[in-house]
Amino acid sequence: MLAVIRIRGRTGIKQDIEDTAHLLRLNRINHLVLLQEDAVTKGMLQKVKDYVTWGEIDVDTLEVLLKNRCLFKGRRKLTEEELKDVTGFGSYRDLAKALVDGKIKFSEINDVVPVIRLNPPYKGYEAIKTSYRNGGSAGYRGKDINNLIRRMIIPGVDLNGQREN
Fold first, then answer.
1. Full domain range(s) for residue 46
2. Which residues contact 33 (CB under 8 A, 6 or more apart)?
3. What are the alphabetically sorted keywords of the record?
């Protein structure tokens, strides 16, 4: 399973690249989507590689992401009780394992918002106009996407930047 994060905005972007980002549901900076890895997805990612970063997400990071940032439609938090009713999985960990193993697609879960909003990363991005291979942030980063996601999930802070009680 791939985690894809948009790191650059819309200014000066070609229309076909913007359309591809829209098809990937990456309309704003710091939005994340979870995608299955296939030839079509790889082609789309190659087209928008200068505006997004992506890599393979692991079970631990996905569990933390589901627990802290995943929302139902209506912007309600995903709780353990509702998780069991909607997905049939008893815990976040079981759902994360099933998603990573490809047993279920994230888009198949009913009433879950397909785009996950994240905070800007702690200590910022590297150079957003430079590829990850050259010391920047854009493009494929493999397993290192997990470090970036963990820097973007700040426990105890809600989506509006307010401290949760």
1. 2-58+116-152
2. 3, 4, 24, 25, 26, 114, 115, 116
3. Ribonucleoprotein, Ribosomal protein
